[in-house]
Design a protein that fits this description.
Strands 5-4-3-2-1-12-13-14 form an eight-stranded mixed sheet, sandwiched between helices. A six-stranded mixed sheet has the order 8-7-6-9-11-10, with helices on one face. It has two domains: 165 residues, HAD superfamily/HAD-like (Rossmann fold, 3-Layer(aba) Sandwich); 101 residues, Hypothetical Protein, Haloacid Dehalogenase-like Hydrolase, Chain: A, domain 2 (2-Layer Sandwich), CATH 3.30.1240. With 275 residues, it is of the alpha/beta class. The chain is built from ten helices and 14 strands.
């Protein structure tokens, strides 16, 4: 019994870095971190554990939560297209090139779908619509209205996002891959969103890049998520955690599935494996 307890203690304290998705994982439905979870995150930081926010959101939107947790927090945003360190310094950045962006616009016009890009830390749309307003980022950043994407002088964007009928999500994903000749990475954070990043980018690759910088091994990493755009970072991490509200595809690859949903699920995992 004593040997078992000792080995468990060592294993629990192996975790040096925790990365968590934001929406529907660290954040509850009201876009807030539960007070209990926030206290535990601060305790993890005080013990020297790296905290990373791994999200599809813009940096400006994610930084609000970094500031709540502690300035030592790192951010992987746009599903991996941008990494910002604890000193607010960009350590990795990758964008869609303008040619690909124009092809995405062509696809959306052909299918009569809403799409948006990102420019200078703002949401770039033709015009603000109901589809724009479902984006939680709009609560924290402004939108640029381009009026006509066909005439707009684009800058490279870290991500594109398309809003679709949930019943046709898989169909549109496959059609888009074919239309773009499989030149991009396509992810899903909600059942009505197609998120498009540069081909070399996903949360897992960016997590691996950051861990290399920090000299941290996958066996020392916990990753927590709820949807398929979190799969790659869970696959990279020895401690792969799905919150109770996660999609089944993510639960299937998880080392541990929480009993609690969203923010309290994160607290559960941190208490069980880190503290």
């Amino acid at each position: 019994m004593c040997i078992f307890i000792f080995s468990l203690y060592i294993e629990v304290n192996m975790i040096k870095l925790v990365v968590s998705d934001l929406d529907n994982t660290l954040l509850d439905k009201d876009n807030k971190i539960n007070d209990k979870t926030l206290t535990i995150l601060k305790e993890c930081l005080s013990k020297g554990v790296f905290i990373v926010l791994g999200t599809g959101r813009l940096y400006q939107s994610a930084k609000i939560y970094k500031d709540m947790i502690g300035e030592e927090t790192y951010i992987i945003c746009y599903n991996g297209s941008l990494i910002v360190d604890d000193k607010d310094k960009v350590v990795f950045s990758k964008n869609l090139d303008v040619g690909l962006m124009k092809k995405i616009v062509d696809f959306c016009k052909l299918k009569n779908l809403y799409c948006q890009f990102y420019e200078d830390g703002k949401i770039l749309v033709e015009r603000v619509t109901e589809e724009t307003r479902i984006d939680p980022d709009l609560k924290n950043v402004n939108a640029i209205e381009a009026i006509d994407f066909g005439l707009y002088d684009f800058k490279p964007s870290p991500k594109a996002m398309i809003v679709v009928d949930p019943n046709l999500l898989g169909v549109y994903q496959e059609e888009l891959r074919n239309f773009l000749d499989d030149e991009v990475y396509i992810a899903q954070s909600q059942n009505y969103l197609i998120e498009i990043m540069p081909k070399e980018v996903d949360k897992g690759k960016s997590l691996e890049y950051l861990c290399d910088k920090l000299n941290i091994k996958p066996s020392e990493v916990m990753a927590i998520g709820d949807n398929t755009n979190d799969r790659e970072m869970l696959n990279f991490s020895s401690y792969s955690i799905a919150v109770a509200n996660a999609v089944d595809d993510l639960k299937d690859v998880a080392f541990y599935v929480c009993e609690n949903e969203r923010s309290l699920g994160v607290a559960e995992a941190l208490n069980k494996f880190v503290l």
